[in-house]
Amino acid sequence: MSSQQQKQSILKKITKGLTVGSVITGSTFFHGPPVLALGLTKLFKKSAKVDETNIHITNSWLSVNNWLIDHVLPETHWDITVDENLDLNMQGRYLMTCNHQSWVDTTVNQYFGLTRMPLTRFFTKWELIFIPFVGQAFKILGFPMMKRHTKAQIAKNPALKHQDLDEARKACEQLLSQPFTLLNYLEGTRFTVEKQQQQQSPYRNLLKPKAGGMALALNILGDQIDALVDMTIVYPDGVPGYGEFWLGEVPRIAVNLRKIDLPDWVLQGDYEEDAEYRAKFQQWIDDLWQEKDQLITHMKQQYQN
To answer: What does the record give as EC number (predicted)?
Structure first.
């Protein structure tokens, strides 16, 4: 590449970065205050209409992001495959699992789901409530916010374990008044080779799944959901950072969505108190993870040919 071409490439990148940054910032300042203002009214009176309005405003914010992806980042090619048995709609109730590699994963989820599924929410830490604007928005929009206690704290005060479960139960039950997509990153953290080696993970492309959160969600919501959806995300050219994505430096993103059939026994046990059920549930999750691991390998191989 010549010196002139390098300068043009740098200028293009700067221009794109400024455009994306300006639009997202402007959109956030436009959409954010109404959500927060309407959320304050819920301190005095709960209102389904307020919740519905806030979701519409949030979807409008997401639609701006999606417009940027389609028109400012046309270099990114999306390869999306949806199981023919998976019938998604905006009025559905879904639990979703997904592998986790980058902050870009959430943007991928939102890009796919905006016009196909209800607003995606995921479990967040209660401590995020203290982050200005972001934490309050999560709370207002009904993201389940968890007060998690450490094993050491629970060992000193066993009652804390039930307190955590009660908080999770209340958070999930609040979703039942509306359509929802509840996302659970079973790995609990972003995948890296270092973490994979530290865990001695038996999977080629995944960390070990944490089954407890999914068991709890299914116990509370299982007979109310329309489908358990598994989303698999692959970045054939390497896992990108958030900045790389918004600068258009991600050539390809592959997404696969499949429906997971729920065995009858899954909704009929007590994960916390029944050791036999817990072992069976963990084996079921492991089997799903083995299938997912093989799927990721297959998706990667498709792009190597």
So the answer is: 2.3.-.-
Q: So where are the chain's domains?
A: 1-74, 77-118+179-302
Beta strands of the chain (E only): which ranges?
A: 77-82, 93-98, 120-122, 124-125, 145-146, 180-184, 227-234, 252-260
Q: Supply the pTM of this predicted model.
A: 0.90
Structure tokens at 110: 């939102």
* Lookup: tokens for 266: 């899954």
Buried b (16+ CB within 10 A) or exposed e, 215-228: bbbbbbbeeebbbb
How far apart, in Å, are the Cα atoms of 246 and each of 13, 52, 298? 10, 29, 27
Query: Cα angle at 302 between 67 and 286, to 5 degrees?
Result: 90
Consecutive H or E run containing 6: helix 3-41
With bands split at pLDDT 50, 70 and 90, how would you rate the model's confidence at 171?
A: confident
Is 271 strand, coil or helix? coil
Does residue 75 sit in helix, strand or coil? Answer: coil
| Helix locations, 90-192, DSSP H | 104-113, 134-140, 151-156, 159-173
Tokens 């046990």 appear where?
A: 269
Q: Would you mind telling me the total number of residues written for the chain in this entry?
A: 305
Q: Which tokens in the block code for residue 285?
A: 């999750």
Give the integer Cα–Cα distance in Å for 30 and 236. 35
- Answer whether 144's CB lies under 8 Å from 123's CB: yes
Pair type for strands 252-260 and 180-184: unpaired
Contact 199, 208 (CB under 8 A): yes
**Tens digits of residue pLDDT in 209-263:** 999 889 988 988 888 999 999 999 999 999 999 999 999 999 999 999 999 999 9
Band the pLDDT of 152: cuts 50, 70, 90: confident
